[in-house]
Amino acid sequence: MRASLRRIWGLIFRHLALYRRSPPRVVELMYWPILQMVVWGFVTAYLAGAGQGVASVAAGVLLGGVLLWEAALRSQMGFSISFLEEIWSRNLGHIFVSPLRPAELVAGLAAMSMLRTLIGVLPAMLLAWLLYAFDILAMGPVLVAFFAALLAMGWAVALGVTAMILRWGAGAEALAWSVLFGLTPFACVFYPVAVLPAWLQPVALMLPAAHVFEGMRAALLEGRVDGGHLAAAFVLDALWLAAMGALFLRQFEAARIRGSLLNIGE
């Protein structure tokens, strides 16, 4: 167990060293969440000033959706890009010459994903409070559960993306930036699931994020914790992680048999 933790820490330290000597990398982590929050903050400020009651409440729901969805996006991209950095530096083959196991690689990438998400989202949360007087922490401890559910969904999607990269190489790298954006309409970040056409609602409810945002709206609009949606989010996260983890391991074994770990991305 101790040796396994040391190997995971070694992988994490290798990525932390990149950020320690490269301030632009750190700035890039914060740039997009802050930009999204500022743009949507102006939209919510307009809505809040355009009317009373419903418009003001809707403004807060929009900002909450932006901040929570950024957690999912940064989680998925943090995992996927950390994996891609190993490919771009021609380091993937070297990693697996060492005793590092696939599960330890996944654990290290998930830890880096969490760090990258915190670096990106926390400054945006602070600016939302300073500029727009929106305090997402007002939701209380349930906010931690929302973030955890979205982080897990991001990891599941990232495992699927890395599996596709192992299978298709450089041709699949664009998925690291596009897959979760493509799921945004079905995640119901800014509107209830009930807004969708009836035939699309079951599709949306298969996404953990849709349950998280239904729970977020219940917390912000009604001041209550929707245990049903929260439980559904974590159950779906477990299913997604199991399915995508199995896909990743299958493609990893296939890549190892083909010998493509040394030249993937070329």
Instruction: Note the beta-strand portion.
Output: under 5%
Mean pLDDT: 84
**What is the chain-wise order of helices and strands?**
HHHHHHHHHH
Instruction: List the uncertain runs.
Output: none
Task: Give the overall shape, derived from the CA principal axes.
Answer: globular
- Helicity level: over 70%
Describe the structure.
It is a single chain. The chain has one domain (2-258). It is globular and about 60 Å long. It starts with a helix and ends in an 8-residue tail after the last helix. With 266 residues, the protein is mainly alpha-helical. Helix 6 runs parallel beside helix 10 (227-258). The mean pLDDT is 84. The protein has helices at 2-20, 23-50, 54-88, 92-95, 102-132, 142-168, 175-187, 201-204, 208-222, 227-258.
Characterize this entry briefly.
With 266 residues, the protein is mainly alpha-helical. It is 78% helix and 0% strand.
Which properties best describe this structure?
single chain, 266 residues
List the helices and strands and how they pair.
Blueprint: H1 2-20, H2 23-50, H3 54-88, H4 92-95, H5 102-132, H6 142-168, H7 175-187, H8 201-204, H9 208-222, H10 227-258
Helix pairs in contact: 1-5, 2-3, 2-5, 3-5, 3-6, 3-7, 3-9, 6-7, 6-9, 6-10, 9-10
